[in-house]
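Subject: Sanity check before I submit

Could someone independently write out the structure tokens for this chain? I want to compare against mine line by line before I put it in a report. The sequence has 165 residues.
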Amino acid sequence: MKFRGRIPVILLLTMVMLATCSCRNSEPAKIGTTAPDFTVSDGQKTVQLSQLRGKPVLLNFWATWCAPCVQEVPSLVQLQSQMGSKVTVFAVSMDQDEAAYRAFTLKRMAGLLTVRDPDHKSSAMYGTFAYPESFLIDKDGKIQRKFVGPVEWTSPEMIDYFNKL
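---
Independent answer below. Compare away.
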């Protein structure tokens, strides 16, 4: 009966796995598929992803408490400034703390389209659980690339990629 001591451990691990697995109504977003549409309203603005079609969208899931996200923000702001109306940077915050979100975006995210989704409904549709996570969506609404972690969005390679879209 060597397994007797291991049964609670196996049972506990199984319960943890089931608790952390997210049961969603849809599959996580995949490259080459139509980007899952969502609408987020945070009391100050409402944004529907599909209304941004017609030009490339950089969909970025982030939070103020996420150090790599904060590190990436200047690059996102600079990308939007540099690309102008050719690209829409759409930053969706996962922040629970509305005051922290408002203060951060006011101070550091001028010129970006950003909205807060404290219930994480939009990121769940994309299978996102690590921040920052970004999806490059083409003008027709198809996901072209996925990035996990901070990116230098204004690198020559990224600017070239955006220009080719």
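---
OP: Matches mine. For the report I'm noting this point. The helical segments are 6-20, 67-83, 98-108, 121-125, 156-164.
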